[in-house]
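Hello forum,

I keep getting stuck at the same step: I have a sequence, I want structure tokens, and every attempt I make locally crashes halfway through. Rather than fight my setup again tonight, could one of you with a working pipeline run this one for me? It's a single chain of 210 residues.
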Amino acid sequence: MFIELLELLRCTSDHAESSLVAAFSKVTNRFIDEATLGCPVCARKFQITNGVGQFGGETALKPGARNWQLPEREELGTRIGAFLNATEAGSTVLLGGVWAAGAQKLSEMVELRVFALNPPSGVTDSATVGLLAVAGKIPLAAGSCAGAALDDTFSPELLPSILRMVRAGGRVVGPATISPPATVLVLAKDESYWVAQKAPEVTPLRRASR
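Reply #2:
Ran it on my machine without issues. Output:
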């Protein structure tokens, strides 16, 4: 995992957010191969193993259902970029499961950061793509992502964590096997996936005093 991506990582325990403190064991050209991440609030510890952030998931990434080939990855990156309306350079998105196969392509097209969550085999990290293995809550800061996409390998219980991580007005893509939350606006839906938007922030109007 590239060292600059650490700033967005958070503890998955239920308490006030705080940046994690890293103790590096092996770093190569600013890529973290091995490290321990400690939470200053609850003292919980997480590991980066072979460059992969481990947050309550398996000790190693499970292979995906398919071994995606390069043309498929390029197409997937273009497609999910359109679904998420990912046009803001420098922003961050999360791609889970098979969507993560398009992480590098999307990152190159829009110049943004991508966290690949439980990706298929063959997906590698880069200066703009970080790999995460999780089983529950998403270990990213609240409102830190412009959008997120998950496939049907994820549980519906993960959606509240996803919505917390996506900023107001951001988009979420989910599988048809999981119902979209009632709190989002569904923009499109077919037999495979739905695309929804998190409610934008509302600024209350105040009458000027005389």
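Residues 58-66 have pLDDT under 50 and may be disordered. If your local run keeps crashing, start a new thread with the error log.
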